[in-house]
Amino acid sequence: MDLNSIYTELVLEHSRNKQNRRDLDEYTHKELGHNPSCGDEITLQLNVVDNVIEDISYTGHGCAISQASTSIMCDNVKGITVDEAIERADKFIGMVKGEITDEDELEELDDAIAFESIQNLPARVKCAVLSWYTLKDILVNDKTEGSFTP
């Protein structure tokens, strides 16, 4: 199985996965992420306790790439500290932009490494990074209510 087919399988599997696509019963942080160029829209909900992301979920709609990237991100940051999650978001964004290529540095991204080749599809980069930028925005700016009204 080549890397492209592994990537395709991973994207399809995660874009259909409903485990992370839900509303949290209790959350401490919430924010809308929107990509006006293609219409992808996600709302992230996080439950942060003692500076650790206890749970994270999303709702919304978009292409398979944005949905899969969001689901993989949720799996990747659940159970780690806020600072670690910000660092991982920076690494993912740097990887997708081609700025970080050191495999050892990217190792903690786990399945998210599959998106490394998306930099060859510039029109899809925004789809892949939407949730990661939204996560970073929530955590850096401590968005407990979100900057939007439902």
Automatic annotation (TrEMBL):
Residues 7-127 form the NIF system FeS cluster assembly NifU N-terminal domain. InterPro entries: NIF_FeS_clus_asmbl_NifU_N. NCBIfam families: SUF_scaf_2. This is SUF system NifU family Fe-S cluster assembly protein. It comes from Peptoniphilus ovalis. The lineage of its organism: Bacteria, Bacillati, Bacillota, Tissierellia, Tissierellales.
